[in-house]
Design goal:
This protein has 405 residues and is of the alpha+beta class. It is built from eleven helices and 16 strands. It folds into three domains: 70 residues, Phosphatidylinositol 3-kinase Catalytic Subunit, Chain A, domain 1 (Ubiquitin-like (UB roll), Roll), CATH 3.10.20; 145 residues, no CATH class; 139 residues, Acid Proteases (Cathepsin D, subunit A, domain 1), CATH 2.40.70.10. The strands form three sheets. It has a six-stranded mixed β-barrel. The chain has a five-stranded mixed beta sheet with strand order 2-1-5-3-4, with helices on one face. Strands 13-14-15 form a three-stranded antiparallel beta sheet. A hairpin with a 2-residue loop joins β10 and β11. α5 runs antiparallel to α6, α6 packs across α11 and α10 crosses α11.
Amino acid sequence: MRLTVSTAEGEIYPVEVDSDETLENVKAIMEVETAIPLASQVILHNGKPIPDGSKLSTAGVHEDDMLLLMVRQSAPAAPRAASGGHPNPNGMAPDGSAQNPQAMMDQISSNQGLLSQLTETQPALATAVRNRDVNAFQTALREMNIAKRNAERAREQEMQRLMADPLNPENQAKIQEMINQKNVQEAYENAMEYNPELFGSVIMLYVDMEVNGVKIKAFVDSGAQSTIMSQKCADRLGIMRLCDKRFAGVAKGVGTSKIIGRVHQAPIKVGSSHLTASITILEQDDMEFLFGLDMLKRHQCCIDLSSNELRFGSCGESLRFLSEHELPDKGLETSGHGASSSVAGAGAAAAPPAAAATGPATSGADDAKVEQLIQLGFPRDKAVQALKACEGNVDAAASVLFGGF
């Protein structure tokens, strides 16, 4: 049975117990979690104390109920040990500044994804990192710590206000939302501490090929239905003269693009093997050459990330995926260009869907979501920035704001 236990200070603890457990077992769990002695605990359900020795089922406690933990004595509880027992290598001083600011700036600088996020949510901190300004960096961290404490204080006050009438359905919904945000924040902090690689940028998969005897970097995208090339690139490679304009139309996916036509048999070279590819020519030029699912299946390709290569079953060749310094500028983006799309136009009856070469649009921050973050104590401009950076996800935006990064 899943329960939620809240302290008078507004701290929330999820608890999993059997319905036939006695109240003492719940108290024992809470003693471990809060360091409040078992004998000093009073647990209330629906505003009434649960008698010691009672089973949860007989006390009327049900799945997903909330219990309130009160302290019988006024003596303060012993402080809890830090979660996990593992010190953070980037330690923070009590005022929120970094104990080793140079090391922390080095870590942020090496993570382009985190630095981009900071540019949106904490521009002063990002500027200090780029300028290697230790004093400005420490000042920004202290200001973030003050804002975080103010937000936590506001959240505690809001929880106390809600717990004054815990049976109110509207209050229960808000309490549940605050519990969810706390869980999201804890997951975010754990991920930042133990899996920081999750926040790193992901480079796209590119390989070196030759098209019509000209070397080109091909973007490998199994999420795109068709192999595509920009008109500008096709002109440069000398295959635009082979374009069948009867297959003109419109590619529709995340965005739309005009289809000029199709090259049915473009000569490509993979390693030492000569193959052919059917390439849809698009008017837009934000993606030069995308090697899509149609050609991946036709040539029995295998994307092997363990050996970092693209293997061609049709000819036995293997192409190494390019490293970051070898990629074109667009290859450093963390989101793919390919997307399923539909085609309409003169050649639509014979032409299969082509892939749109546009990335996902960033969601805006609507007023309702902004107001949710403002109610948690954050200024409007920071709330808007966080929502935009998190593509409109309120929980993720709250985690970014609560966590400071």
